[in-house]
Amino acid sequence: SSFIVGHLCSALDIIRTIRDPEKPNTLEELEVVTENCVEVQEIGEDEYLVIIRFTPTVPHCSLATLIGLCLRVKLQRCLPFRHKLEIYITEGTHSTEEDINKQINDKERVAAAMENPNLREIVEQCVTEPD
């Protein structure tokens, strides 16, 4: 439906400007996120499941968990509709993808990570829109 297309676009617009934690580039510029990495499914009345699959720049990228956290924080803040969010590493693109997938989709672990002031500061820097 046109809702799904609109929601796909808005989800992509939200994540394309997230910056890499170590580089000045955005995740879109580094092809960590692409147009094909977002999937939206209707799961209830006016509620949608948003699935993001991102591709770390290297298979042992130590920042993959952090990038997943940035994606989650920014989408939760900015998505203009009711949603559930699932974030995964693109299959076969990271050496510890299963662990990371569990971590970034575990509410308690995400909350604990965001209580860490250093980590929170990095996430904020990555998700804040440049002026």
Automatic annotation (TrEMBL):
Protein name, UniProt field: Cytosolic iron-sulfur assembly component 2A
Family annotation (SUPFAM superfamilies): Fe-S cluster assembly (FSCA) domain-like
The organism of origin for this protein: Eolophus roseicapilla
Subunit structure, as described in the record: Monomer and homodimer. Component of the CIA complex. Interacts with CIAO1. Interacts with IREB2. Interacts with APAF1.
Domain of life: Eukaryota
InterPro entries, sorted: FSCA_dom_sf, MIP18
Alphabetic keyword roster: Chromosome partition
Family under the similarity heading: Belongs to the MIP18 family.
GO BP terms in the entry: chromosome segregation; protein maturation
